[in-house]
């Protein structure tokens, strides 16, 4: 397991192959170098999204938060994404060992251990100083690197699947947890989000799949960002923080990649672990579970992309450059004629395709994808 010395990483600035020199990865093309410590490559040149001094004492609250995350990563990967990745892999007739998966914004990195244990070839990135420090404990740490989701150190088309859980909403906004939780969008929010999506699509191969999940901006309550874990935070659509299904469709239409998009219900993705510490969580979690399960039943699947769903799970298939589908059932092709009518997009199948109608690439402002 000595991946870092193998020619996997490319220079995130110029995409040239990197070579190993002592404790660095070096780019012969643009002459940048990137440090590697404990097997973990660092591509952000000190531009972490957080502030963390290795060796600093964590508060009891921070420690409890990190412990709690371990229980969150396991069901997300083991119960939700591994079965879905397995379905896609079997459709292609490929073995697990050759199926490459990136967890973009992998946080504590446990996902990479879990994906690897399930036999997949997994990598993870996060632009965090705290995570870099945490990752020293990970078994598969040489597959973890400190990198920005909008500037990934991987070659074009490298991955069969890319996961980004709870990432997109943090792109292009400023959040503050000093006192009350506050968030406001940057003027570059949409350009930043398009840039992030363009980058995850770049590293996915044609025929590969991107999985995004995040709280639904069209659902009026956010249980994931607030003053306390699991607390209900009321928000309006004009807040400009949580993405909606229509926004994601709009971002994809502006990118130069032919894609097909589908929304899934978050049954099994949501475990109601934090919200159950509140009375409304205990009261509502059983009916909510039943409702989320209903979204997996055929006549109700369309709900997954609507304001009735508190948490969006988005499957984006990257098609080949001619735009002909290289994966997915033929039925998905039929929605092509409806693509200029946004209202028809959330039809019963929840499928549509956002082919690159606008061939223009979004401007490239500096951005940080927080995980
Ligand atoms: Zn370079």
Keyphrases for this structure?
single chain, 371 residues, alpha/beta, twelve-stranded mixed β-sheet, two-stranded antiparallel ribbon, 16 strands
Quick gist of this model?
By secondary structure, the chain is of the alpha/beta class. The chain has helices spanning 60-92, 110-117, 129-134, 189-203, 245-253, 279-294, and strands spanning 18-21, 24-27, 33-37, 40-42, 100-104, 121-125, 144-146, 159-165, 173-176, 182-185, 204-215, 221-222, 233-234, 259-264, 311-318, 351-353.
Commentary on this structure:
Helix 1 runs parallel beside helix 2. The protein has a domain at 148-353. The chain has 371 residues and is an alpha/beta fold. Strand 1 and strand 2 (24-27) form a beta hairpin. It is globular and about 55 Å long. The two termini are 26 Å apart. The protein has helices at 60-92, 110-117, 129-134, 189-203, 245-253, 279-294; strands at 18-21, 24-27, 33-37, 40-42, 100-104, 121-125, 144-146, 159-165, 173-176, 182-185, 204-215, 221-222, 233-234, 259-264, 311-318, 351-353. Residues 11, 13-14, 16, 27, 29-30, 32 line the site of zinc ion.
Number of strands: 16
* CA-based shape: globular
Give the % helix. 10-25%
Strand count, sense and closure of the main sheet?
12 strands, mixed
End-to-end Cα distance, whole Å, is 26 Å
What does the average pLDDT come to? Answer: 82
Pattern of helices and strands: EEEEHEHEHEEEEHEEEHEHEE
Count of alpha and pi helical runs: 6
With strands numbered from the N-terminus, the spatial order across the biggest sheet is 1-2-3-4-7-6-5-8-11-15-14-16
Radius of gyration, in angstroms, nearest whole number: 20 Å
Small-molecule binders: zinc ion
Proportion of residues in extended strands: 15-25%
Strand-pairing-aware structural class: alpha/beta
Low-pLDDT stretches: 1-5, 323-371
